[in-house]
Amino acid sequence: MLKVENLQSGYGQIQVLRDVSLEVKEGEIVSLLGANGAGKTTTLRTISGLIKAWSGTVKFNDVLITNEPPDFIVRRGLIQVPEGRQLFTDMTVLENLELGAYTPSARKNLKKNLEYCFELFPILKERIKQPVGTMSGGQQQMVAIARGLMSEPKLLILDEPSIGLSPLLTEQVFDTIKEISKTGISILLVEQNVEQALSFSDRGYVLENGSIVLEGTSDELLANEDLRKAYLGM
Amino acid sequence: MSLWLFIQSLIDGLLMGGIYSIMAIGLTLIFGVMGIINFAQGALMMLGMYVTYWAFTLAGIDPYLSLPLSAIALFILGALIQKGVLERVMDAPDHNILLITFGIMMIIENTALVLFSPDFRSITVPWLSETIKMGDYVVSKPKLIAFFISMSVALLLYWFLQKSYLGKAIRGTANNKIGAALVGIKSKRINYITFGLGAAIAAIAGSLMTPIISISPSIGHTFILKTFVVVVLGGLGNVLGAFVGGLIIGVSEALAGAAFSGTLNELVIYVIFVLILIFRPKGIFGGGS
């Protein structure tokens, strides 16, 4: 469903991505792994149209979306829960979720999707009127994921959803992602937490200095000597 | 200063403050959403004045009836300025955009000079000429009407931003650009609607001022400077701050005019401006929406 081929991009004169190719198939959970500064977030930003690709292509459900504006990409059902969450912190939980349903098709199902989000995160229903900026990190992450779900994703991209969360909360977030995936939404998960990410995804890619250096099923990657040495310290 | 003079000045200042409030709301809205400091806001106000002036002079249309015309005309012009000019330079450094809005101001003013001549013009509307007496105090009719319409515009805008879906999208864009892009909000569309709204509000302020003062193509200067003071006082990008700031500056100006000589009131305003910049650079209410 998502097919990235030979993607190159960066900021200003500085190239970050060199020939990144990856794929997410219908219904899969795929992890994109790598250390800080490896280019994970840059890859996601280029896919979502936040920064321009220098060359290469991004196809989503066979539609070429390379360098299309973000709203074009969102309307096709490719939704990103970005690094740093990028929530509307001055606005309430409800307003954040309402704006998640900005595309015309998502707006039609706003009420139904809102119910689903509250089912997934009951705490958000209690805090409906609270300004998001005053919430804890874990609750903000819930708002971020819920806002993404309000957009009716076909593919949900999550950029380090566990960052800054306690182990317990991290586990909850991962459980929720699994639940979301069961409804038929494909997931591309970016993580530094290699073991946890691989333990629950189907396949994975490892990014280093802007290039994919390893790819395979999660079991293959977990068994890989180099990966174990580099990321798991074993 | 006698108590009478104090209260009379308070009334006058509050009424003028309403106009300053909406001028500042227009400016601060554009800044909050796009980060653009719009120097042309005063020139747009001036155009609103001329719409009302010509509608009255040529067609005998009452100044308050030409208000919607003035607002719609300037909304369209504002949206076109954003779409045609500013959208192309949104990624440029701030000072470049500042120079461009300054340039737009010069173009509008000089076009107005050519078309309308530098003459000062004013309109005399018979039913507005008498003042209203409230006990010992006198209130000018057009100022009172201007105040109430300004307050209504401010309330309407507040309702629009808080309750309507488009208003929420505008606030969302002001709050977090990346977040807005990732929920599918078309920033370009939000930008030209916002600039159009800002221009329309300036036009309303201009139309409301037309029965009160003499107008000329360069009349925008005094207003844009005062508007900057109000916006800084309320916190850049803060709509509520702009509203309250406008009333504060209106009252300060009138009280200073009463306490000192008439020419010193401007000085007082800019002294306030400098003091805010030194002691409360984020405004009395802080920035943000």
Low-confidence blocks of residues of chain A: none
How would you classify the helix and strand content of chain A by structural class? Answer: alpha/beta
Name the largest protein-protein interface in this structure.
Answer: A-B, 27 and 18 residues
Largest beta sheet of chain A, briefly? 6 strands, mixed
Distance between the termini of chain A: 35 Å
The CATH class designation of the largest domain in chain A is Alpha Beta
Strand content of chain A: 25-35%
| Poorly predicted parts of chain B | none
Total number of distinct structural domains of chain A: 2
Work out the number of β strands of chain B. Answer: 2
- Rg value of chain B: 19 Å
Query: What is the 3D shape of chain B?
Result: globular
Overall average residue pLDDT of chain A: 94
Proportion in helices of chain B: over 70%
> Which oligomerization state do the chains in this entry correspond to?
heterodimer
| Shape type of chain A | globular
What's this model, at a glance?
Chain A has 234 residues and is an alpha/beta fold. Chain A contains eleven helices and ten strands. In chain A, 40% of the residues lie in helices and 27% in strands.
Overview of this protein structure:
The complex is a heterodimer of chains A (234) and B (289). With 234 residues, chain A is α/β, with parallel strands linked by helices. Chain A folds into 2 domains: 1-77 and 155-234, P-loop containing nucleotide triphosphate hydrolases (Rossmann fold), CATH 3.40.50.300; 86-152, no CATH class. Chain A has helices at residues 40-47, 70-75, 93-100, 104-108, 110-120, 122-126, 137-150, 167-182, 194-200, 218-223, 225-232, and strands spanning 2-11, 14-24, 29-33, 53-60, 63-64, 78-81, 155-159, 186-191, 203-208, 211-217. In chain A, the strands form 2 sheets. A 6-stranded mixed sheet of chain A has the order 6-7-8-3-9-10, sandwiched between helices. In chain A, strands 2-1-4-5 form a 4-stranded antiparallel sheet, with helices on one face. In chain A, helix 3 (93-100) packs parallel to helix 7 (137-150). The longest helix of chain A has 16 residues, at 167-182. In chain A, 46% of the residues are buried. The mean pLDDT of chain A is 94. Chain B has 289 residues and is an all-alpha fold. Chain B has a domain at 19-220. Chain B is 72% helix and 3% strand. Chain B contains 11 helices and 2 strands, in the order ααααββααααααα. Chain B has helices at residues 3-34, 41-59, 67-84, 94-116, 141-163, 165-175, 177-182, 187-209, 220-234, 239-259, 264-279, and strands at 131-134, 137-140. Chain B has a two-stranded antiparallel ribbon. In chain B, helix 1 runs parallel beside helix 5. The radius of gyration of chain B is 19 Å and the shape is globular. The model of chain B has no long low-confidence stretch (mean pLDDT 93). The chains are: A alpha/beta (234), B mainly alpha (289). Chain A binds chain B through residues 48-50, 69-71, 74-75, 79-80, 82, 85-91, 95, 98-100, 102-103, 147, 150-151, and chain B through 165, 168-169, 171-172, 175-176, 178-186, 288-289.
